[in-house]
């Protein structure tokens, strides 16, 4: 009677899969040459043309985005989340002088990718929702996971972590900022407010 070592069998099954994933990751990085960016850069959220300052932090694995009024809901049997980005918390959007940043609050809805539990010293643990977001940095569009959290008291509304740097072959110069040679297209505060108002009208009344 032949006895099969289950541990060896499991290793034999897992190893090819692991090697395939590693090869895929290496191939992706080989296709994109390494790019060096500063520890702070401009990013533009692709679906809104919202421009924000982002800190590139090798000490964080997952990127994070400033968001308030984060509320989960169900859509088509899947878990989604709604959230707002009040532009008055970080006045990064170029303006023509007609509006104040305090007057503009952007609203978003995204499917939930996963949730994380953040342990905080001297405070209760905090549940955070993670969503996928498209953004542009240094003239190139990327997609990565962002945890949603109130960053109103931080200097930068967005933080880009190691997951983004690893997946897109990004190197960080911790001694310099705003090193990107290419820019991303963005809107002024007034253009952003007008576009957002039009999208809200379309959602409420598609025939308007």
From TrEMBL:
GO biological process: proteolysis
All copies of domain Retropepsin-like aspartic endopeptidase, residue ranges: 37-183
Keywords in alphabetical order: Hydrolase, Protease, Signal
Signal peptide feature range: 1-22
Superkingdom of the organism of origin: Bacteria
Gene3D superfamilies reported in the protein's UniProt record: Acid Proteases
Pfam family, one: Zn_protease
Hydrolase among keywords: yes
GO molecular function: peptidase activity
Protein name according to UniProt: ATP-dependent zinc protease
Native source organism of the sequence: Marinobacter sp. MMG032
């Amino acid at each position: 009677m032949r006895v099969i070592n289950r541990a060896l069998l499991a290793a034999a099954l897992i190893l090819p899969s692991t090697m395939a994933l590693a090869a895929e990751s290496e191939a992706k990085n080989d296709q994109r040459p390494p790019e060096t960016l500063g520890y702070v850069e401009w990013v533009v959220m692709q679906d809104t043309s919202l421009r924000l300052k982002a800190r590139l932090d090798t000490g964080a694995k997952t990127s994070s985005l400033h968001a308030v009024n984060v509320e989960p809901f169900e859509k088509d049997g899947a878990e989604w989340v709604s959230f707002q980005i009040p532009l008055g918390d970080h006045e990064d959007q170029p303006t023509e002088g007609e509006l104040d940043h305090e007057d503009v609050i952007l609203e978003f809805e995204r499917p939930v990718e996963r949730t994380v539990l953040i342990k905080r010293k001297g405070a209760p643990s905090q549940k955070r929702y993670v969503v996928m977001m498209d953004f542009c940095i240094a003239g190139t569009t990327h997609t990565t996971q962002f945890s949603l959290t109130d960053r109103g008291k931080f200097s930068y509304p967005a933080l880009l972590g190691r997951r983004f740097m690893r997946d897109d072959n990004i190197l960080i110069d911790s001694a310099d900022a705003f090193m990107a040679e290419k820019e991303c297209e963005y809107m002024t505060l007034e253009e952003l407010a007008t576009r957002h108002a039009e999208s809200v009208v379309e959602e409420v009344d598609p025939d308007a």
